[in-house]
Amino acid sequence: MAGDAHPPVEVLLGLGANLGDPRAQLARAVDALHEFVTGLQASSIYRTEPVGHRDQPDFYNQVVRGTTTLSPGALLDRVLAVEEEMGRRRTFRNAPRVIDIDILAYGDEVIRTERLTVPHPGIAERGFVLHPLAEVAPGWRHPERMQTAREMLSAAALERVEKI
C-alpha cells in the first residue's frame, strides 16, 4: 500500500486469549507478527483474571517488543488482519476471544484518532499488561505519564496475575 512505509520505530504490542488453546494461539499470533515486526522479543505468558465481563475463562497474556516500518494506521490494519485470520469475532466489550492484539505503544508518539489511541488507554491500571510489559521493556517510558513500565507496575493496585 502506498504511504505505508515509515522510518523504523519500536512498537509494543499486547496479546491476549482465553478461548480454545490460548498458549498455542499466542504463539501463532507471535509467528504472524514476525511478518511485519522485526526483532521480536516476547515476554513470558501470564494468566490473569478477566477484567470487565468476569463470567469467562482466565486470560493468557503476553507483551511483545519489536521494530516496524509500517505507519501507525498500516500497523493497525495488519494487526486486525491477524486477529481476523485467527478467527477473532467482536461480539461485545471485554468478551471472550481467541486472540486480541493491542498496539500499546508506537515509539514515543501520542496518537488520538477515531481508529487508534496510543499509548493504549488503561496501561497503568492493567496488571495483564503491566507485568509482561515490565518484563520485556522495564525502562519503556509512557510519553504522557512520564513513568517507566516498572514504575507504573510498582504503583498500581492490580487484578490477579500469575506468571506461567
Largest sheet: 6 strands, antiparallel
Count of individual domains: 1
**Share of β-strand residues:** 25-35%
What is the distance, rounded to the nearest whole angstrom, between the alpha carbons of the first and last residues? 39 Å
Question: In CATH, what is the class?
Answer: Alpha Beta
Mean of pLDDT: 88
CATH superfamily: 7,8-Dihydro-6-hydroxymethylpterin-pyrophosphokinase HPPK
Report on the architecture of this protein.
With 164 residues, the chain is an alpha+beta fold. It contains 4 helices and 8 strands; from the N terminus they run E-H-E-E-E-H-E-E-E-H-H-E. The protein has helices at residues 22-33, 72-85, 127-136, 149-155, and strands at residues 5-17, 38-42, 46-48, 59-70, 100-106, 111-112, 117-118, 161-163. Strands 1, 2, 3, 4, 5 and 8 form a 6-stranded antiparallel sheet that branches. The N and C termini lie far apart (39 Å).
Question: Short description, anyone?
Answer:
With 164 residues, the protein is an alpha+beta fold.
Question: Which keywords apply here?
Answer:
8 strands; 6-stranded antiparallel beta sheet; two-stranded antiparallel ribbon; 29% strand; 164 residues; Alpha-Beta Plaits; alpha+beta
Task: Furnish the topology, listing elements before pairings.
Elements: E1 5-17, H1 22-33, E2 38-42, E3 46-48, E4 59-70, H2 72-85, E5 100-106, E6 111-112, E7 117-118, H3 127-136, H4 149-155, E8 161-163
Antiparallel strand pairs: 1-4, 1-5, 2-4, 3-4, 3-8, 6-7
Helix pairs in contact: 3-4
